[in-house]
């Protein structure tokens, strides 16, 4: 139970009730209130071990423009359950916004690994490829991208050569 969180006449809220309340606050775009409920719940032993609570905390911090806190929350969620994609997706979005290719690539590699089908894997690449291709001249550290970037650049060179003739 979460002490200090009101469950109405029934006493403290359960984790499930707390997560539902946070989801409702996020849906209403009340990120300050949702963040406060997250913080209070994360101070409990049960809350500190809740994957969804950490993901919601990451969402709130992202929307409140505190990216370092958002990244920390998403990373904690990935430690608790590395095989769930929502926290990885949050990290991907933050690293995309920050144009941080070095941190983005391992996250996308994980999302590609978690994708259930080819369309899902391709979708992950499509989201980040513009940033990867804009990193021309920089070392791309991900094996999953190296081929894609080099293949794209080879095709561009061939197209330019054909157009020049």
UniProtKB/TrEMBL annotation:
Entry keyword annotation includes Repeat: yes
SUPFAM superfamilies: TPR-like
GO cellular component, one term: Ski complex
InterPro entries linked: Ski3/TTC37, TPR-like_helical_dom_sf
UniProt keyword terms in alphabetical order: Repeat, TPR repeat
Any one of the GO BP annotations: RNA catabolic process
Classification via PANTHER family: SUPERKILLER 3 PROTEIN-RELATED, SUPERKILLER COMPLEX PROTEIN 3
Name of the molecule in the record: Tetratricopeptide repeat protein 5 OB fold domain-containing protein
Organism: Eutreptiella gymnastica
Organism placement in taxonomy: Eukaryota, Discoba, Euglenozoa, Euglenida, Spirocuta
């Amino acid at each position: 139970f979460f002490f200090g969180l009101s469950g109405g006449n029934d006493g403290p809220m359960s984790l499930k009730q707390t997560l539902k309340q946070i989801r409702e606050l996020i849906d209403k775009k009340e990120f300050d209130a949702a963040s406060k409920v997250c913080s209070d719940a994360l101070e409990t032993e049960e809350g500190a071990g809740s994957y969804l609570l950490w993901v919601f905390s990451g969402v709130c911090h992202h929307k409140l423009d505190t990216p370092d806190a958002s990244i920390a929350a998403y990373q904690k969620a990935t430690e608790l359950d590395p095989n769930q994609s929502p926290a990885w997706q949050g990290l991907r979005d933050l690293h995309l916004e920050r144009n941080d290719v070095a941190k983005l690539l391992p996250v996308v590699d994980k999302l590609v690994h978690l994708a259930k089908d080819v369309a899902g894997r391709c979708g992950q690449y499509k989201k980040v490829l513009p940033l990867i291709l804009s990193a021309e001249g920089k070392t791309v550290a991900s094996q999953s991208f190296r081929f894609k970037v080099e293949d794209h650049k080879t095709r561009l060179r061939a197209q330019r050569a054909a157009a020049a003739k």
